[in-house]
């Protein structure tokens, strides 16, 4: 199949971050089986399928993303004139933190590569009705899967201290207690229902940042992470992805904020036997010569997007790409308890 024919399929304006670097690090091979654990707009899927005659499983917990993927599979069938063309892309609904069970149900127990984009899909951000954006009004939802408690449920029911802890832990917001106090006072007058209602309360008590970042940014991030158990998904997904890789297979991850990247960086370093213990005063804070040599870090430092990409796509500014390669079938070392657990 011609690579450009796949890549040129309409993508509704979605700009996948560090696309060239993703494909270079994943190294898709004909006949291989790969996983895009965060299908989103399908940008990575198109590039992977265009780079090699391989099979790609794509996981997403957003029903809208699953529908986009099935449409893409249908376009592939029409392009090739065969059912096999569409079968190269196989959509699986669910969270990537459950990838092992989801893929085993599809008859897949080993992979030649996995890519995870930990950012929120631009489709979700740009659709006000999904409730992720503090710039456009919509229901205070934030659920990626459209099931379970919403962000409105949290801000209307959590005790003040617990709400402050959520905002501080997942948003790294130093004014979390002030924000929680303001939210509790406001909900006593009327329950929160919309994004701009919440953003307005936060903006009244948080001074504008010199960087120009909206005062509501960190609080919205915190609620989104909590609603979707994003850090738990990452921890489970990393362990399962690495354990399913065949020798020579690679796990390529793009993260967008410090909480995500801290988990990814530590996991990959530990898998490669290079992680020090948390404190430099701890006598165990040294490289671990006894760690299984079953993995290696493809690059010592995280890769960042080019200046050209960030000018074209400002959402790429904070992206960091890290890659782990499996060298042997040595067992996965257990992940050390992290700050996000």
Automatic annotation (TrEMBL):
First-listed, main subcellular location of the protein, grouped into a coarse class: cytoplasm
Gene3D superfamilies: Putative methyltransferase TM0872, insert domain, Vaccinia Virus protein VP39
Documented EC number(s): 2.1.1.199
BP GO annotations: methylation
EC supergroup of this enzyme: transferase
Binding locations of S-adenosyl-L-methionine: 42-44, 60, 96, 117, 124
Annotated stretches, region: Disordered: 271-341
Reactions that this protein is recorded to catalyse: cytidine(1402) in 16S rRNA + S-adenosyl-L-methionine = N(4)-methylcytidine(1402) in 16S rRNA + S-adenosyl-L-homocysteine + H(+)
Compositionally biased intervals (Pro residues): 331-341
Superkingdom of origin: Bacteria
Annotated compartments: Cytoplasm
Keywords for this protein: Cytoplasm, Methyltransferase, rRNA processing, S-adenosyl-L-methionine, Transferase
GO MF: methyltransferase activity
InterPro entries on file: RsmH, SAM-dep_MeTrfase_MraW_recog, SAM-dependent_MTases_sf
Family matches, as Pfam families: Methyltransf_5 (PF01795)
Family: Belongs to the methyltransferase superfamily. RsmH family.
Protein task: Specifically methylates the N4 position of cytidine in position 1402 (C1402) of 16S rRNA.
PANTHER family: 12S RRNA N4-METHYLCYTIDINE METHYLTRANSFERASE, S-ADENOSYL-METHYLTRANSFERASE MRAW
Protein name: Ribosomal RNA small subunit methyltransferase H
Species of origin: Endosaccharibacter trunci
Gene: rsmH
